[in-house]
Sequence to fold (200 residues):
Amino acid sequence: METEKLTAIIETLIFASEKPLKVKYIEQVMSVIDLGELTIPGLIETLKAGYASEESGIELVEVAEGWQFRTKPQFAEWIKRLNTVRPSKLSAPAMETLAIVAYRQPITRAEIDYVRGVDSGGVIKTLLDKRLIKIIGKKELPGRPLVYGTTQEFLEVFSLKDISALPNLQDIKQMSSAEEELERNQTELPLPATEPTDEE
Fold:
């Protein structure tokens, strides 16, 4: 079978999948096809290259240990104009707790409370409900406390290939400084009339 037909099949599978599609699942689906010397990872790279041109508003990215089509970041402003309702944002305590879990997992609620200095029960429940964290086991301590870790949904939301792709603390500080500067520069810009107010 021609390379173009094979990449078209992979393109269809990734597009039809609700979640990032892992290579092993693509290989299972296409196991009935004799690829010869070609490989699924190689075909994916060929497909990815086809979307890399500046003329395309879509890109193929590796996220949450799978592959998914996403809009390119430089067109984010147009997506914002299209959306009439914004997804609810995580509160500052929720983001703080999520960061603690992400960088220190596996971690118990007591350990989270100690780092934050406050009770985190409600915030942990919110993150569990949003499927950004999950219970991954119990710690070998008296009372066998639950330990928490991040989920595949967490990787998807933050566009991470895997947990090792988390930025280091220095990168986060630089990103935060850049975001603050951007917000200061945009304070005098009028918002579109259809722009909804952010919900807390």
Observations:
- The chain has nine helices and five strands.
- Confidence is low (pLDDT under 50) at residues 185-200.
